[in-house]
């Protein structure tokens, strides 16, 4: 079956289920962290990206979801063929001093967290390494995520836009568009309405096969 980000694959995942790429556990349920086709091999369940998936390039801004915490690094789903790596060594000196083990690293980022990052390098086998100047700042507050074809978001002068009324939009080159508050906190009703309008504008443009850029949602943004 085909799934999108956040879709439940198994409502009650048993201990025998092996979680593969493109999946994560949330409240006992196995959910998808990428759009694609569910594949099963014995007890292994994973989500393979659909054709036209994301091909990373150095300098790309991406929105991804942390799916695993390992000593000195996080594994992040950015809709590529393999999970991207965010090493602790690329997170800045202050953060490196604060996180000296997996437990402390979880105080910064845990499974399910959305982040904004930049592609630092791409290995010959396709492994993507990410870079952020501040791992704390890279964690995105609660917001809305719209998944579109990566080909619709071309490299642009700016991928992060402040849209007024405390809203921000991040256009990930991997086809993940995040709409939410500039800072953590509760959204006011007018902010929620504006975020929904921006997300709908992005969905409408994607459905029509139009490139996603500032002009796509500028008319829907608060003034």
UniProtKB/TrEMBL annotation:
Protein name: Exosome complex component RRP4
UniProt GO BP: CUT catabolic process; exonucleolytic trimming to generate mature 3'-end of 5.8S rRNA from tricistronic rRNA transcript (SSU-rRNA, 5.8S rRNA, LSU-rRNA); nuclear polyadenylation-dependent rRNA catabolic process; poly(A)-dependent snoRNA 3'-end processing; TRAMP-dependent tRNA surveillance pathway; U4 snRNA 3'-end processing
SUPFAM superfamilies: Eukaryotic type KH-domain (KH-domain type I) (SSF54791), Nucleic acid-binding proteins (SSF50249), Ribosomal L27 protein-like (SSF110324)
Keywords, in A-Z order: Exosome, RNA-binding
Pfam families: KH_6, S1_RRP4
Signal sequence region: none
PANTHER family in the cross-refs: EXOSOME COMPLEX COMPONENT RRP4, PNAS-3 RELATED
GO CC terms in record: cytoplasmic exosome (RNase complex); nuclear exosome (RNase complex)
GO molecular function, one term: RNA binding
Source organism: Micractinium conductrix
Similarity-based family: Belongs to the RRP4 family.
PROSITE patterns: S1
